[in-house]
Amino acid sequence: MNEYLESKLIQFDKMFNVYKESLIARPTITERTAAIRNFELTYELPWKAMKLLLQFREGENLSSTSAVLKKRFLMA
Questions:
Q1: Tens of pLDDT, residues 54-71
Q2: Is the pLDDT of residue 52 over 70?
Q3: Long-range contacts of range 24-29, CB-CB < 8 Å, 24 or more positions apart?
Q4: How many H-runs (helices) and E-runs (strands) does the chain carry?
Q5: How many CB atoms lie within 10 A of CB 55?
Q6: Could you give the domains of the chain?
């Protein structure tokens, strides 16, 4: 696996932990907004990592989120 892909997977792991920590009961508006943004970032990192993995292993260049997720889950 190339170093760039490994770094994306490490970033995802860190971001997912930040997202989990942002989930609290009765959040303020600011905390809620931060949790939503953390979710967005946490969602983007894995599909981009999957895209890179598919490019690296399969030689496929998929451009949309849905195409990457569809391809990845059909492989599982």
A1: 888 878 888 888 888 788
A2: yes
A3: none
A4: 3, 0
A5: 15
A6: 3-75 (1.20.120.330)
**Of the candidates 41, 44, 48, 43, the residue with the CA atom closest to the CA atom of residue 5:** 48
Write down the residue that tokens 């970033």 correspond to. 11
So what's the pLDDT on residue 12? 83
CA torsion sign for 60, 7, 70, 63 is negative
pLDDT per residue as tens digits for the range 13-51: 888 888 888 888 888 999 899 889 988 888 888 888 888
The sign of the torsion formed by the CA atoms of 44, 45, 49, 55 equals positive
pTM: 0.57
CB atoms within 10 A of CB 50: 20
Dig out the tokens for 28 from the structure.
Answer: 């303020």
Taking the C-alpha atoms of residue 5 and residue 76, their distance in angstroms, rounded to an integer, is 19
